[in-house]
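Below is the data:
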Amino acid sequence: MNIIECKNVVRSFGEPPLVILKSLSFTVEKGEFIGITGRSGSGKSTLLYVMSGLDDLSSGEVIISGKNIHALEGESLHLFRNRNMGFVFQFHFLLPELTAMENILMPARKYREEKKRAEYAISLMEQFQVYHCRNKLPSQMSGGEMQRTAIARSLVMEPEILFADEPTGNLDSENGEIVMEIFEKVNRDFGTTIFMVTHEQDYAARGSRQIHLVDGEIDSDVKRKKKK
């Protein structure tokens, strides 16, 4: 079952236009773990941003769970993203004045579901080994702890899709490995579809599929057997 359909996706900037994504078309099945690779400037992050509705399309369509997300506007798009998607970036973007627990529950606050989601937030913290940070501010946490907290925040609403843009790019190898193990667990145990941009070939190869971009076009699209 396809959870994402990209149809002739084009993204260009400026005048005359500089075309970053050149009429990309592909589908994503529910439960896939896709690694997106390519050189700097190949369009990796741009693709993630237009697929998730964080950036506009120049032309084409992105269908997620049956909805053309670029036909949604304002609050409708915002609510759809919050309910269906989680985001992890290279930098954690935790709010410095909030504790780890408060940061994780931020997406739930918009729906007044903090109490409803609190038990699940605790479960995520325990699984990701940051429960001891629940009352700490980001300034009192290590880089790895902050990124794991950010991943918990991205999952607290139980999204169908997790978009990750260079999630290990600001971490040392040990913490990068921890993050990858978390992603594999989330994909395997929760069935979350993961779309991860990375410059690390080894990390991309650990997913069920790898799409390699060259100059805004798909150079290769390789599927692998999912790990048990």
Remarks:
- The two ends are 20 Å apart (CA to CA).
- The chain has a mean pLDDT of 92.
- Strands lie at 2-13, 18-29, 33-37, 59-64, 67-68, 85-88, 161-165, 193-197, 209-214, 217-223.
